[in-house]
From TrEMBL:
Pfam families: Arm-DNA-bind_4, Phage_int_SAM_3, Phage_integrase. Residues 171-375 form the Tyr recombinase domain. Belongs to the 'phage' integrase family. SUPFAM superfamilies: DNA breaking-rejoining enzymes. It comes from Ligilactobacillus ruminis. One of its GO terms (molecular function) is DNA binding. This is Tyrosine-type recombinase/integrase. The keyword ATP-binding does not apply. It comes from the Bacteria. GO terms for biological process: DNA integration; DNA recombination.
Length: 383
């Protein structure tokens, strides 16, 4: 048994001991447990006897596990994650961690985080912003898994949480029908300049993403072959600025066919842009020229520029039903499927890496077709 030592402090006599706990199997070094501050020798003896009892039961582990905080493991996880994704994706994850996850777990030791702690966080994420809850769970789970692999914890409590059930509210109205699209484009062609008309005509008749649209150069348009090459996209940086980088996924790199009227709208804008920039002393007749520029030949400063163009159109036309910019991609997908295009061809044209994304729209379209068929039958029977 360890020896109890008496020592003096300003408050009087105190007692301490140094207990030998065994040899650390990992390091081969002896481990000692130091206790002090006992006001009586009897209190020190009781504490020492308790340690002896725990050691006899095998409850004292001589191994020295490093205690780390959740934020330390998170830094280690992000240092690897940033090498695998685009800067915009990294920025989204870092923002989610900083705003929603760090307040709950950042300063906690990972081995002290319980299932109850995780469930409380999940419930509060769900109540605050339900749509972000799955992403928060996924991120915490990834960080905790790294902690488990590193040996800081034995179990990952985030894996056992109960996810509050979300009422999925798919926005079934974020697209135009054939008639609505024709009305919209007719107004834009009549009221707006050639650039704005070419922009929304291309979005609606190609289904490309907003970031892909804003990264296009004239070298991407083959007027003779009637095709459009998609191999880059305008992407947000962590600091809010933009840059032209690789597309969202490998499937996003594609070449799609364009119709004659869309090509005509692009060609008319190409000539107009060249004249406008020439007046400013710029030569726009190069393959590298950005198509939908900032009016000075450069890429726009932020991706929301197209949103601003669309808002102005709706302000002039309050009778038009409003959809978001992404709704033109959904419109193209919907009308393609309604026209009889195969799921595989639509997936390829839109650059969906997961066919389930295309199938979600397909399910929506088939429901509409089934309902239309029923309506025709009822009208026939009751007519």
């Amino acid at each position: 048994m360890a020896k109890i030592i008496e020592y003096e402090t300003r408050s009087g006599k105190r007692y301490k001991f140094l207990y030998y706990a065994g040899v650390d199997e990992k390091t081969g070094k002896k481990k000692y447990i130091r206790k002090n501050g006992f006001t009586t020798k009897k209190a020190a003896q009781i504490a020492l006897a308790r340690l002896e009892y725990q050691k006899a039961l095998g409850k004292i582990d001589a191994s020295t596990k490093k205690k780390v905080r959740f934020c330390e493991v998170a830094r280690e996880w992000f240092s690897t994650y940033k090498l695998t994704v685009r800067e915009s994706t990294l920025g989204t994850k870092e923002s989610r961690y900083r705003k929603q996850i760090a307040p709950y777990f950042g300063d906690c030791y990972v081995d002290k985080i319980t299932l109850q702690d995780c469930q409380k966080a999940v419930n509060e994420w769900f109540q605050a912003i339900p749509a972000t809850m799955p992403g928060c769970i996924e991120l915490v789970n990834s960080i905790m898994e790294l902690a488990r692999k590193e040996g800081y914890i034995t179990d990952n409590p985030m894996k056992d949480v109960t996810r509050p059930r979300r009422t999925r509210t798919r926005d079934d109205n974020n697209f135009y029908t054939k008639q609505e699209l024709n009305t919209f484009l007719g107004r834009v062609k009549q009221q707006e300049n050639k650039k704005i008309y070419a922009c929304f005509r291309l979005l609606a008749y190609s289904g490309i993403r907003k970031g892909e649209l804003l990264a296009l150069t004239w070298g991407d348009v083959d007027f003779k072959g009637k095709t459009l090459n998609i191999d880059k996209a305008l992407t947000n940086r962590i600091n809010g600025s933009v840059y032209v980088g690789r597309p969202k996924t490998t499937a996003s790199i594609r070449k799609i066919a364009l119709d004659d009227l869309t090509l005509k709208a692009l060609l008319e804008w190409k000539y107009q842009q060249a004249r406008d920039l020439l007046k400013r002393g710029y030569n726009a007749n190069t393959p590298q020229q950005i198509i939908f520029d900032d009016n000075n030949g450069n890429i726009v400063k932020y991706k929301g520029s197209v949103n601003r163009w669309l808002r102005k159109i709706y302000q002039k036309n309050p009778d038009l039903r409003c959809i978001r910019v992404h709704g033109f991609r959904h419109t193209h997908c919907t009308l393609l499927l309604e026209s009889g295009a195969s799921i595989a061809s639509v997936q390829e044209r839109l650059g969906h890496s997961d066919v389930n994304t295309t199938l979600e729209v397909y399910t929506h379209v088939t429901k509409k077709v089934r309902q239309a068929a029923l309506n025709d039958f009822i009208n026939y029977m009751e007519g």
